[in-house]
Amino acid sequence: MTHGFFPDDPPGEGEDPFAQSYERVPSFEPPRDEVPALFAAPEVIARGDDLVIAILGARVHSDGVEILIERHLRRGSRDAREWQLAQMDFTGHLGGGDRSPDRLRWGLVLGNGERLFLDDRFAPPSPVDPATDDVVRHSVRMTGGGGSGGGETYTMHDGLWLHPLPPDGPLELVVQWPAFGVPESRVILDGGAVSALAASVRPLWG
Questions:
Q1: What is the pLDDT of residue 95?
Q2: For residues 51 and 71, is the Cβ–Cβ distance under 8 A?
Q3: d(Cα 71, Cα 80) in Å, to the nearest integer?
Q4: Half-sphere exposure of 183 toward its Cβ, with a 13 Å CA cutoff?
Q5: Alpha-carbon torsion, ordered 159, 163, 168, 171, to 10 deg
Q6: Closest by alpha carbon to 65, among 193, 206, 204, 203?
Q7: Distance in angstroms (rounded) separating the CA atoms of residues 53 and 46
Q8: Whole-structure pTM over 0.85, yes or no?
Q9: Residue 12: what pLDDT?
Q10: Pairing of β 134-135 and β 139-149
Q11: According to the model, what pLDDT value does residue 96 have?
């Protein structure tokens, strides 16, 4: 019953907007409640005239691995306008609608021969067998990301979330970016060694 000028709030208003429980989609992102094991694998994957793409290593979780990538762009001989446009291309390559053959493209080849391709950050989840609820194949998608730079250089930090853990055998990471002079290039990790580190993952909250 209203006793003053303002009416009573309708039911539900004023409740905690964060009270709903969070449900993770495993193929979309790493667990938030784990301290991952670190797999060190610093190596340059590819070089262009003013671009370097390097893998730093990976964060291994209980059900997947996040491959850590750095991309470095330098200004070179570009004037102010050219540098601005280059930075826009460098940071905005994953808009979801770009299908230019010159775009940045990532791929993975797993030890079981499975080939995965990533062209945007809205990749579908890992397919699941409805009868067994088991993942029937792997998936890869972008995680996080971000960057910074200035008048002469710009750096982007990317993550590639592979779910579930890779099988034994080579884990091959493939990249190409013709727009920045990067041909098809690759680096190979040990998929079995990566997955073995999952035993070292610890819960974040004890």
A1: 46
A2: yes
A3: 21
A4: 0
A5: -30
A6: 193
A7: 5
A8: no
A9: 64
A10: unpaired
A11: 47
The ranges of the chain with pLDDT < 70 are 1-3, 12-20, 93-98, 119-136
Report CA 125 to chain centroid distance, whole Å: 13
Q: Are the beta carbons of 128 and 134 closer than 8 angstroms?
A: yes
SS3 of 57-81: the string is EEEECCCCEEEEEEEEEECCCCCHH
DSSP at 26: T
Cα–Cα distance between 27 and 62 in angstroms, integer? 12
Q: Give, for 88, the enclosing helix (H) or strand (E).
A: helix 80-91
Cβ neighbours for 155, distance < 8 A, ≥ 6 positions apart? 70, 71, 72, 73, 147, 148, 149
C-beta separation of 147 from 91 below 8 A: yes
Say which residue the tokens 């930090």 belong to: 157
Chain centre distance of CA 155: 15
Query: The tokens of 112 are what?
Result: 């079981």
Give the H or E element holding residue 81. helix 80-91
pLDDT at 11 (0 to 100):
73
pLDDT score for 144: 76
DSSP code of residue 168: S
Residue spans per domain, the chain: 34-203
Check residue 94 and give its pLDDT: 47
Instruction: Tell which residue, 126, 16, 154, has the closest CA to residue 63.
Output: 126
CB-CB contact of 60 with 198 (8 Å): yes
**Looking at domain 34-203, does it have CATH number 2.60.40?**
yes
